[in-house]
Amino acid sequence: MIIHLIDGPEGVTDQDAQILSYAVQRGKALLLAVNKWDLLTGENRNPDKYREEVRYRLSFLDYTPICFISAATGYGVRKLLETAASLLQAYRRKVSTSQVNQALQRIVKAHSAPLFRGKPVKIYYATQTATAPPTITLFVNVVHALPASYEKYLMGQFRESLGLDHAPIKLVFRPRREQAPARKARR
Fold this sequence. Notes:
Layout: E1 2-7, H1 14-25, E2 30-35, H2 47-57, E3 66-68, H3 77-91, H4 97-110, E4 115-116, E5 119-120, E6 123-130, E7 135-140, H5 148-161, E8 170-175
Parallel strand pairs: 1-2, 2-3, 7-8
Antiparallel strand pairs: 4-5, 6-7
Helix pairs in contact: 4-5
């Protein structure tokens, strides 16, 4: 798990974005802590506006919790630790296959998968195959058919439905049945 400190007065930098993108690629649980919150004044001290600015600059971390702290005064540190413990629990959580499939049915019923080359993409069933990060394997009729936007939708819905709050989720798509190896042509 990574707790990434953002300098409150400075805001999100390009270096922050670069470091955090590496953590996302590696499937790490992330918690953003805006430090020096006590030094901000006026309009800059509005947590909702500050959070909105962070979300804008780091749009790929829309699921990551943001805590406001002051290392000098201790403000927000207890909440940061509670949030970190909750995030770590979700990151390591194992969900039963029946729960995953019930959630999948609700998710697909609410918003079905888009067509691929004029044919429907069918998601037959799913199971959690790993933790840290929670990895959900979905068995489908066409493996590389779902657009990134639908994958993001699935991740958000699984996160919400399965109690994986703020945890990164990895999706793996596999064919329903393994393809039989092609026979070698005789010469």
